């Protein structure tokens, strides 16, 4: 079983068939095309997107529907085609994962990008960050600070 030693998540054992491929990479990270989706019980519901090419690169994400329970995807047909869905193909909810990339500012304010979710075709292991400027969602959707958390250390 292959292993990846990462800066933030330690040593990860993975099966090659669990690799998620971003054919066009991610915006500003176009050369990063192979990732692992890492879920840890100690950090639920956070989902990490760990680069296989750069062990220092990991994206913190949350399921988009958890960030906004009424979240409505509105991806372009080109984005769906890029991850293996046929035009006008009905997409079952369990076949498509939508993750919002989380950003934490220096002052510890967290936001989620609901305008450009990461979409993963669970069956084909293909992914894209789908820019949806027409969706009405923000790229900086505010996340609440967990109760009991404080900015004082």
Describe this structure in words.
The relative contact order is 0.17. Strands 3, 4, 5, 6, 7, 8, 9 and 10 form an eight-stranded antiparallel beta sheet that branches. Helix content is 7%, strand content 35%. The chain is mostly beta strands and 153 residues long. The chain has one domain: Roll (BH3618-like). The termini are far apart. The mean pLDDT is 92.
Number of helices: 2
What would the principal axes of the Cα set say about the shape? globular
Low-pLDDT segments? none
CATH topology: BH3618-like
CATH homology-level superfamily: BH3618-like
For the largest beta-sheet, the strand count, sense and barrel status come to: 8 strands, antiparallel
User: What's the CATH architecture?
Assistant: Roll
Order of helices and strands: EEEEEEHHEEEE
How far do the termini sit from each other?
Answer: 40 Å
User: What's the alpha carbon Rg, rounded to whole Å?
Assistant: 16 Å
């Amino acid at each position: 079983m292959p292993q990846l030693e990462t800066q933030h998540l330690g040593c990860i054992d993975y099966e090659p068939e669990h690799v998620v491929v971003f054919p066009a990479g991610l915006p500003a990270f176009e050369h990063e095309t192979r990732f692992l989706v890492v879920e840890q019980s100690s950090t639920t519901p956070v989902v990490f997107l760990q680069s296989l090419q750069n062990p220092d690169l990991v994206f913190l994400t949350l399921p988009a529907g958890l960030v906004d329970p009424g979240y409505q995807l509105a991806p372009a047909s080109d984005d769906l085609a890029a991850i293996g869905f046929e035009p006008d193909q009905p997409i079952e909810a369990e076949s498509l994962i939508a993750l919002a990339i989380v950003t934490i500012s220096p002052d510890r304010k967290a936001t989620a990008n609901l305008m450009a979710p990461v979409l993963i075709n669970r069956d084909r292991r293909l992914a894209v960050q789908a820019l949806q400027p027409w969706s009405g969602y923000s790229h900086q959707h505010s996340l609440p600070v967990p109760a009991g958390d404080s900015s004082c250390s």
